[in-house]
Write a structure and sequence with these properties.
- The complex is a heterodimer.
- Chain A is an all-alpha fold.
- Chain A has 14 helices and two strands; from the N terminus they run H-H-H-H-E-E-H-H-H-H-H-H-H-H-H-H.
- Chain A has helices at 2-33, 40-58, 60-86, 91-113, 140-162, 164-174, 176-181, 186-208, 218-233, 238-257, 262-266, 277-283, 286-289, 293-304; strands at residues 129-133, 136-139.
- In chain A, strands 1-2 form a two-stranded antiparallel sheet.
- In chain A, strand 1 (129-133) and strand 2 (136-139) form a beta hairpin.
- In chain A, helix 2 (40-58) crosses helix 9 (218-233).
- The longest helix of chain A has 32 residues, at 2-33.
- Chain A is globular and about 70 Å long.
- Chain B is of the alpha/beta class.
- Chain B contains twelve helices and 15 strands.
- Chain B has helices spanning 2-22, 38-57, 77-89, 101-117, 151-162, 179-195, 216-225, 237-249, 265-272, 291-304, 311-327, 332-339; strands spanning 24-31, 65-72, 94-97, 124-127, 144-146, 170-176, 200-207, 229-232, 254-257, 278-282, 343-345, 351-354, 361-362, 365-372, 386-394.
- In chain B, helix 2 (38-57) packs across helix 11 and helix 3 runs parallel beside helix 4 (101-117).
- Chain B is globular, with a radius of gyration of 22 Å.
- Classes of the chains: A mainly alpha, B alpha/beta.
């Protein structure tokens, strides 16, 4: 039992940190510009595919640096030539733009790399078990993923809270006109922030690609859960996103580990009732519904605390 | 003069069109060509195209060329029906499909209704891989023919092997949460319980179909249960990722599988380092020892650059030809009648028969294990250097289960 708890905690934290890496970019963009970027998971997918392609050409480590930069550049272009022009038509237009972009990216990716999963492997340097607990190996690559996510989180916090750049970014968030009058180029700040957010998603793609599956529908599979993270954590709150990522990662992992059902808690239904919809519902285990648990959390938090765990604004 | 030539050049193909359409037999291949099942679906499409080319090179069926039309159903029943209707509208009278029993059930139902409503334009449904037993039991249809062994036939053979393996004490079941996965778990529980009541089922897991991206939490659970063997019907991405996670965690158990040989499976097994500890149950495999089948495998690999996952697809196409020639017609109604009780020498050797009662093809079944190859086994899988090794062959009479099918005959 202890074994299961320890391993599940590790797995949950890892998944949570990966979610954070993705949602941090989304949160920063959202708090800056008020745009819910539907194409964010697509930038993650682009990161994975660029990572795969660059790994084939120049190796994993250069790809780890170059692929996020490429994705960031695409993100900046999207902001400069897409979002900035639609901004004057309001948030709905911006939302629709990113929505369409997500589909376009998926189509382009499947045209270039095909619809089957690509063979994106863990670099041989990290392809060994890092340590063994209770006779279960923990792969070094997963530890590496964890380390990258933690480093990024700390770096983001420091930049936003402790540096001059962070000060301007935060000010531009609430008082864009004032910041503009002080001589800062608010447009460029927005563009860079969008680029950095996209690059973060790209980075998550590069490092998650070999561990999960790299294929053209990976964005669609991950997109919805990201919105759960940022709403659950509080719209626009970076620490909130961090906590929410961890909570959702852990909840989902532990839900798989639990075999409990209503039947095991309260005993089976009267057998004379015969098989019916009720007995089906009664016998469903938590493990079976694990994938939908995060969405249940989303619904509950929206009812109980609409601004999210650490959010400041009602929305 | 030039105008006339131009006119002929434009009109001639139009005139030629109907004639050539009648000269081809179109087979609609409806399987996932995108999403989580794509790797499996694309392999199947290439296999059927190879088989069609082979038949065409030998003059086709009754002088008619065969054309395979690939249609993407995204492993989705609803999408499959749209594709099936599209195919029928384009003149397809034969549909073949395999991946996903939920899709198969929907298609079988669709074809049956279509044939009732459109007499004279019947469509036959050749199922090469969907193994839910209900398709040839309570949901059986006259227009549906299955070449793969149903999952209860496979489980019957598998448990007959497991019951003679005393080292098996604790079994963990993990399957995809849909009709096929559920039938694997219920059959395994029932048959193991009857044949080896001392075996303990220490886990019985269902997970969402083609949705899980990381199986580590499931592997942690298997490990914690103390199981020595796992039985799984997982296929495609779900199998490869399951084994990948097992390899990462260093889980050392015996795996009894239906589809370890599918796309990505062998690579994942090799990563686990479980030499001859992953078993698969099939109607044939590369190193079966049958010379004709091994020669065929060699030619297939040379041209398609894939292993022959579906010896049953070879049986299907060859039996289609045999039935059409027996009926001397490519009319689906006559072909269906000719297929019933048709005896056939299968690719890997031994006689099979298309049972009239439920349209289930009965054939020899093999259990093989995956690991280092011996001298007489030339074929590895996915360039891993490992390949399949014969563990047990179950002949047709021992690989039968009864059917409850009450078929409505036209």
């Amino acid at each position: 039992m202890l074994e299961l708890i320890v391993i599940s905690t590790l797995n949950g934290v890892l998944f949570g940190m990966l979610l954070f890496l993705l949602s941090s970019g989304l949160t920063v963009i959202f708090s800056m510009m008020g745009v819910l970027n539907f194409a964010h998971a697509s930038f993650y997918m682009l990161g994975a595919f660029f990572g795969f392609q660059l790994t084939k050409w120049i190796g994993f480590w250069p790809a780890l640096v170059l692929a996020p930069l490429l994705v960031g550049a695409i993100g900046m272009a999207v902001e400069r030539y897409g979002l900035r022009n639609t901004h004057k038509h309001g948030h709905v237009a911006e939302l629709l733009l990113t929505f369409g972009l997500a589909f376009a990216i998926e189509e382009i990716v499947s045209m270039i790399w095909g619809k089957s999963p690509v063979d994106y492997r863990v670099p041989s340097l990290l392809d060994f078990p890092a340590f063994t607990i209770f006779s279960t190996n923990y792969p070094a690559y997963k530890l590496f993923m964890l380390a990258v996510s933690v480093v990024i989180f700390i770096a983001l916090l420091i930049v936003l809270k402790r540096t001059r750049v962070g000060l301007i970014v935060q000010a531009a968030l609430t008082h864009p006109h004032m910041v503009g009058h002080l001589g800062h180029n608010v447009g460029r700040v927005f563009m860079v922030v969008f680029g950095v957010g996209s690059a973060l998603a790209g980075l998550a793609g590069v490092i998650a690609g070999p561990a999960l599956v790299t294929q053209s529908d990976m964005a669609a599979a991950l997109g919805p859960i990201l919105f759960v993270v940022i709403v659950f954590g509080g719209l626009g709150s970076l620490p909130g996103a961090f906590v929410a990522s961890l909570v959702i990662g852990l909840v989902q992992t532990f839900a798989v580990a639990l075999n409990g059902s209503l039947a095991s808690a309260f005993g089976p239904l009267d057998p004379s009732a015969g098989p019916s919809v009720l007995t089906d519902v009664w016998n469903v285990t938590i493990a079976q519904v694990a994938p939908i648990v995060p969405y249940l959390l989303l619904v509950i938090i929206l009812i109980v605390r609409p601004m999210g765990l650490m959010g400041t604004r009602e929305s | 003069m030039r105008k006339l030539t131009l006119a002929i050049a434009v009109i001639a193909p139009m005139l030629g069109q109907p004639a050539s359409a009648e000269d081809t037999i179109k087979i609609g291949y409806i399987d996932p060509l995108s999403g989580g099942g794509a790797s499996v679906g694309e392999g199947g499409l290439k296999t059927f195209q190879y088989l069609a080319d082979e038949l065409n090179a030998k003059g086709g069926i009754l002088g008619k060329k065969i054309e395979i039309i690939g249609l993407d159903n995204k492993t989705n029943p609803q999408e499959s029906l749209v594709q099936a209707q599209k195919a029928i509208d384009a003149g397809v009278r034969y549909i073949t499909q395999g991946n996903g029993s939920s899709v198969a059930a929907a298609l079988s139902d669709f074809v049956t209704k279509n044939n009732t409503r459109n007499p004279g334009k019947e469509v036959l449904y050749f199922n090469y891989a969907a193994v839910d037993p209900s398709l040839t039991n309570e949901k059986c249809s006259y227009w549906h023919f299955r070449w793969d062994a149903s999952s209860d036939i496979k489980m019957e053979a598998l448990t007959n092997y497991m019951k003679d393996t005393p080292s098996i004490k604790k079994v963990y079941l993990i399957n995809q949460d849909y009709s096929f996965g559920q039938s694997v778990r219920t059959d395994a529980r029932k048959m193991l319980g009857a044949k080896r009541p001392d075996i303990q089922i220490v886990g019985d897991e269902l997970h969402p179909l083609l949705k899980v991206t990381d199986f580590s939490p499931y592997i942690a659970k298997i490990k914690a249960s103390g199981a020595d063997s796992v039985v799984t019907g997982n296929w495609g991405q779900d199998f490869a990722l399951l084994l990948k996670a097992a390899a990462d965690a260093g889980l050392k158990v015996n795996w009894y599988t239906y589809y370890a040989g599918g796309a990505g499976g062998p690579t994942a097994v090799k990563q686990t380092g479980l030499d001859h500890q992953v078993f698969q149950i099939t109607e044939g495999f590369a190193n079966s020892g049958n010379k004709a089948a091994m020669d065929y495998e060699k030619a297939f690999r040379a041209k398609v650059n894939l292993s022959l996952w579906y010896p049953r697809a070879v049986n299907e196409m060859r039996m289609f030809k045999a039935a059409a020639e027996k009926a001397n017609s490519i009319d689906p109604v006559k072909v269906a009648a000719a297929l019933e009780d048709l005896k056939f020498e299968v690719l890997d050797g031994g006689q099979g028969i298309m049972r009239k009662d439920d349209h289930q093809f009965l054939q020899p079944i093999y259990i093989s294990s995956f690991g280092k190859l011996t001298e007489s086994e030339p074929f590895d899988e996915e360039s891993t250097g490992w390949g399949w090794h014969l563990v047990s062959k179950i002949d047709t009479p021992q690989a039968m289960v009864s059917t409850t099918c009450k078929m409505a005959r036209p």
